[in-house]
Specification:
Length: 353
């Protein structure tokens, strides 16, 4: 499943290439709570078709009512104005916030672009599909757009003259091992917008693989990691429990910019992995600090789908820069459970020291 921004931009490009009127809405400012983060986009076609989101739905409904002919017999054609982009605000008053489904105190500002140039949209979509990180610079005075390859991720830039939104290629996930847990994790990752590659040289595991939309590799995992070239929008997860497959691949991944590198396994397996990498490959505890394990957040998971939820939640937290409480770390939580089990009179407590 493609990244939502790419889906929006690709659909908008197709609408404009077909000669349809359409607008692009971008969340540029928020005050208080807001349903969608800065830079979120949606596209609206002249007949009311929508892709993407800027709110929970009420603001989309208002934009449909304002700018299309849906259920408006007094409006014979598209209501899209021509010319420069417009700014609109929602949630100025408590009544308006309630009407548009915004959280208490929430205010949202959008920039609306009318009939964006299909050529520029095509160039942007092509760059994203080629794996490039792109800045899209909109000149607010006249709607002119320029594109530039970005050197790295960037926050939205918005002032009186320009709106610069950074669009990146899909986040990527490389999973080592094609077992049952991998299938659940790959499914969740696809729904979260990741492009997923699964690597397993073992024919007996690959033979049962049925999940569509995933790139399946038969090469040795460390070679796949090298070819994968993990960057800051990539994560690598080892799921085989087999040191012959996991260890070298993890070593390769640790020396890349991958935002997340981790391996499944128990606390004992994790400690043994660290010891092997230190003893046989010259690593140190400091150089292994970025290796996550046991992976996931502690939710008491037992079955493969529950474990996949746990792992996916941790990956998303790291991707989004959300701090995870120490008491949700799998190893630390299980240590506390073990202590509690050995002291039946003591409470089960997960408060970090």
């Amino acid at each position: 499943m493609d990244d939502i921004d790419l889906l929006v931009l690709r659909q908008l490009r197709d609408w404009r290439r077909d000669g349809r009127h359409a607008l692009l809405a971008t969340v540029t400012r928020t005050w208080g709570s807001s349903p969608r983060p800065l830079g979120s986009i949606m596209a609206l076609r002249d007949d009311g078709a929508v892709v993407g989101s800027v709110s929970g739905g009420c603001i989309e409904d208002d934009l449909i009512d304002r700018y299309t002919a849906i259920n408006r017999p007094d409006r014979p054609g598209p209501a899209f104005p021509a010319g420069a982009p417009e700014r609109v605000k929602y949630g100025i008053t408590a009544d308006e916030a309630h009407r548009f489904g915004l959280p208490c105190g929430g205010t949202l500002e959008l920039v609306l672009e009318f009939d964006p140039d299909p050529g520029a949209l095509g160039d942007l979509v092509g760059s994203l599909e080629a794996g490039r990180l792109m800045h899209r610079n909109l000149r607010l005075a006249d709607g002119m757009v320029s594109l530039e390859v970005a050197g790295g991720p960037s926050d939205l830039i918005f002032d009186d003259a320009h709106l610069v939104n950074t669009f990146g290629p899909q986040y990527r996930m490389l999973l080592i091992g094609a077992g049952q847990l991998t299938e659940y994790l790959a499914t969740m990752a696809q729904f979260c917008g990741f492009a997923v590659t699964v690597c397993d040289p073992r024919e007996e595991y690959r033979a049962g693989w049925t999940l569509p939309g995933v790139t399946l590799s038969t090469d040795m995992p460390d070679d796949v990691v090298t070819a994968f070239r993990p960057d800051r929008r990539s994560c690598v997860v080892a799921l085989t429990h087999d040191p012959k497959l996991d260890d070298l691949a993890l070593l390769e991944a640790l020396h890349t910019e991958a935002f997340y590198v981790g391996a499944i396994g128990s606390r004992r397996n994790n400690a043994q992995r660290h010891q092997r990498l230190i003893t046989h490959f010259g690593e140190t505890e400091q150089s292994l600090a970025g290796l996550r394990g046991p992976i996931g957040i502690y939710i008491g998971s037992k079955t493969p789908p529950e474990i996949a939820v746990s792992v996916m939640a941790e990956i998303l937290a790291v991707k989004n820069g959300a701090p995870l409480p120490r008491d949700m770390d799998v190893g630390r939580a299980k240590d506390r459970l073990a202590i509690s089990a050995n002291d039946p009179g003591g409470p089960v407590c997960f408060v970090a020291p």
